[in-house]
Specification:
Low-confidence stretches: none
Strand content: under 5%
Mean pLDDT: 81
Number of strands: 0
Number of helices: 3
Helix content: 55-70%
Largest sheet: none
Shape: elongated
Length: 123
């Protein structure tokens, strides 16, 4: 596929004003929902963490699609491959870091004899 104008080439296309506005509105809505859920203590901690993770994941997907125009088209195939290979590494890095700090907390926090009543509060 040849283009006379290099700015019209698929790899160089940037998001439109409509795409920026739509991304901003959806991301702001997701952030507002997350803020209200946290501020009002609307759910149990584990459920809240799942909903916040879902909102964050949706915001990332919206930004990838509308701002970066990542899709499965021929023009963007190498960007998509790089993204698909990066996501598992990112999840592994975050997951292993969380696991490391949680086990570090359990192994290093000393329970004093006067803290027997607080033993259930650690987890």
């Amino acid at each position: 596929m040849s283009h006379d104008d290099p700015l019209r080439h698929p790899e160089v296309q940037v998001a439109s004003g409509r795409g920026y506005l739509l991304t901003f509105l959806i991301s702001t809505l997701l952030m507002g929902v997350s803020l209200l859920l946290v501020a009002n203590h609307a759910m149990a901690p584990f459920g809240l963490m799942l909903v916040l993770s879902l909102c964050a994941g949706l915001a990332v997907i919206v930004q990838i699609y509308f701002l970066m125009h990542m899709d499965l088209s021929e023009a963007h195939i190498w960007n998509t491959v790089a993204l698909v290979l990066t996501i598992p590494l990112f999840i592994l890095a975050i997951g292993l870091t969380a696991w490391m700090f949680s086990t570090l907390y359990e192994r290093t926090m000393v329970m004093l004899p006067t803290m027997h009543g607080m033993a259930g509060m650690v987890h």
